[in-house]
Amino acid sequence: MMAATNLLDKLWDIHEIHRRQDGASLLWVDRHLVHEGSHHAFAKLADKGLVVAEPNLTFGVADHYAPTRGTPQSPAIARMIRTLEENTSKHGIECFGLDDPRQGIVHVIGPEQGLTLPGLLINCGDSHTSTHGAFGALAFGIGATEVAHVLSTQTIWQRKPKAMRLSVTGKFGLGVGAKDLALHWISKLGADGARGHAIEYVGEAVRALSMEGRMTLCNLSIEGGARFGLIAPDNKTFEYLKGRTYAPTDSHWEQALEYWATLSTDPDAQFEREVAIDASDVTPIVTWGTSPDEALPVSGRVPDPDELGAYESKGLQATLDYMGLTPGRPLDQIEVDQVFIGSCTNARIEDLREAAAVLSGRKARVPGMVAPGSMMIKAQAEAEGLDRVFIEAGLDWVNAGCSMCVAMNGDMVAPGKRCASTTNRNFQGRQGPGARTHLMSPAMVAAAAVTGRLTDVRPLLMGRNAA
Amino acid sequence: MIGWSNHTGKAVAFDRENVDTDQLIPARFMSTPRADGYGKFLLHDVRFDSDGSPYGDIALNNHLDASILVSGKNFGSGSSREAAVYALIDFGIRVVVAPSFGDIFASNAVNNSLLPARVSATDAAFLLSVSSDGAEGISVDLDHMTISTKDRVMNFDLDPVWRKKLLNGWDDIDLTLNHQDEVAAYREQLLDNQKWRFPVATG
Question: Which of A155, A314, A405 is the best mutation test for B, with the most CBs of B within 10 A?
Fold first, then answer.
């Protein structure tokens, strides 16, 4: 009898071309996604006089520097986008540029176009590549040297991570979902809690998530230190993919389905680490600090340095100074200056519906911006009338891109300003120098917009059909 | 890359945990060509005020000749930007010592000959304290996996694959070319048996 294997084992085995004695595996890469930031890697290729091994397995998209209104905000930003278009065109790589209706954030358009499939190995020079693991793909972020390696060989050297299983039993309450779950486990285990591991998310609550919710969950794996997040594919996955532009068709689809059905962890398979969470313990959660694990239920209070040891208190005081917060303050009394709904974490159609369900018929007390994850999502949202909800609430409805999550395109939070944001990182300066970021779900950001402060969204959902 | 086995230099402390890559190099500098040098961007918003004047209480600003950086746990967490490593290298840093590192950062570091040396929390605390205002003559030995100060020798951890890469100065692309036939055979087999893995646009 074959030994019981977990999902990670199965995905690793099928991609392993060679294993060195020292344990490093040479893996085949099925899809390689590049963006403006890949310019260092293309420069390395040019230096070495190398060509792209598999241009047909490589796709480019403009997202990190993409303008959300009009034209690029500076010549340097315009140059980044132009360089991507030149590099992809030179090497015969299909690129979804600014004028392409398929343009959007790389981790949104991969699944949307059917480029992301179960059982594939997907690389991209971006740490949130873990997103694609929601389809049962082995997907992980890589640096520029590795991008150059994948471009020139269509393979990557990697040591197999340890396997961790995160089981989520029970059901989420109203107004609670994937983003709350992710911030919840990261706050319990720490920003490096899953370092060195691939996390497989299992359990009733994970199964109940839509593909969008699963992508949010896998996306945030890296904020808990895990380079890989995984969810075994099921009928929901297959339904999502069927008929997508690059998804297999006819006999290839049938062949794929047959293989995809094998992509799950065997009942007796082992994991190096097991963590269990009850979904009913998860409540609407917000970050208060400058690391994603610095998160608490919105009913909580800002932590107090006096209650900690000397070393921790020093770090905490610096964090509170940066965030402009006083110890013991109820989180739901913290006023915000603006809101942002967007990013590869939370800018998919379901995220926009969730925010619109709260904002419908209400006005935002603070300014804010809604940047859909792709131009196709933008069109879909407009067809559903969601754009009207945001605009009538007083928020800006803009084009697709990474925008204010990473502030590379010039969309920034001003120094000292406080932003309720659906993004993935509350790091110092992430949304602009001196910016103060509070991470939370799209519904919670919508609630913050309505009240002008961090707010438990649940009362605002009473009598409404939450998306 | 050029291999190396020993380094002796000045260590300086940056006593914080979770030093993420957005701090190591703020995103707005990343459109700069590498040839311009990334050293001035290292920890930019931590080292300089909004007018560009250096903060005097950041030890790194007073030890621009440091080549070993000592820091807290989860150093290099966050994004995959290799520019964070370029900023360290171009500043002159050869070794970062910390109790733990972000996985992608550590991998990027090794690909640029920068050693991410993992030490125990106790040893990290000791090194942070001796290098709080710079410490000359700290030695790092990759053969024996040790870090030595004038009164102490301690061990560090490093994945053996990475140790070998740093020692030999290996470039992965060159290594992979030795496996060209295996890669070609793998690809062939995919085309024969799993054609669905190759994308074709429809509609």
Answer: A155
User: Is any Cβ of chain B less than 8 angstroms from the Cβ of A192?
Assistant: yes
Residues of chain A with C-beta less than 8 angstroms from the C-beta of B18:
191-192, 291
CATH number for A321: 3.30.499.10
- Pairing mode, strands B95-98 and B115-118: parallel
Which chain A residue shows the shortest CA-CA distance from B164? A22
Chain B nearest C-alpha distance from A360 (Å) = 35
Tell me if A61 is assigned to some domain. Answer: yes
* A228-261 tens-digit pLDDT: 999 999 999 999 999 999 999 999 999 999 999 9
Of B17, B26, B198, the CB nearest to A433: B26
State residue B52's pLDDT score.
Answer: 94
- C-alpha–C-alpha distance, residues B30 and B22, integer Å: 11
Q: Are residues A318 and A271 in the same domain?
A: no
Q: What is the DSSP string of B3-72?
A: ---EEEEEEEEE--S---HHHHS-GGGTTS-GGG-SGGGTTHHHHB-TTSPBPTT-HHHH-TT--EEEE-
Instruction: Note whether residue A410 is domain-resident.
Output: yes
The answer to whether A132 and A109 are in contact (CB under 8 A) is no
Model pLDDT for residues A27-59, shown as the tens digit of each residue: 999 999 999 999 999 999 999 999 999 999 999
B93-119: buried (b, 16+ CB within 10 Å) or exposed (e) per residue? bbbbbbbbbbbbbbbbbbbebbbbbbb
Residue A126 and residue A29 share a domain: yes
Shared domain for A268 and A291, answered yes or no, is no
Nearest CB to B34 within list A40, A80, A119: A40
Q: Is residue A344 part of a domain?
A: yes
DSSP codes of every residue in B100-130? -B-HHHHHHHHTTT-EEEE--HHHHHHHHHH
Q: How many domains does chain A have?
A: 2
CA-nearest residue of chain A to B172?
A: A149
Expressed as residue numbers, the domain containing A369 is 286-455
Rounded to the nearest integer, the mean pLDDT of chain B is: 96
Expressed in angstroms, the distance from the first to the final Cα of chain B is: 46
pLDDT in tens, B102-134: 999 999 999 999 999 999 999 999 999 999 999
Q: What is the ipTM of this complex?
A: 0.96
In this complex, is the C-beta atom of A249 within 8 Å of any C-beta atom belonging to chain B? yes
Nearest Cα residue to A117 out of A141, A138, A137, A139? A137
CA atoms within 13 A on the CB side of A405: 28
Q: Is residue A134 part of a domain?
A: yes
Interface subset of A 367-396, CB within 8 angstroms of B? none
Quickly tell me which residue has 């981790």 as its tokens. A107
State the smallest CA–CA distance between residue B135 and chain A in angstroms.
21
Q: Which of A275, A295, A320 is the last residue of a domain?
A: A275
In angstroms, what separates the C-alpha of B137 from chain A's closest C-alpha?
27
Does the pLDDT at position B74 exceed 90?
Answer: yes
**What CATH number has the domain spanning B6-170?**
3.20.19.10
Q: Are residues A258 and A362 in the same domain?
A: no
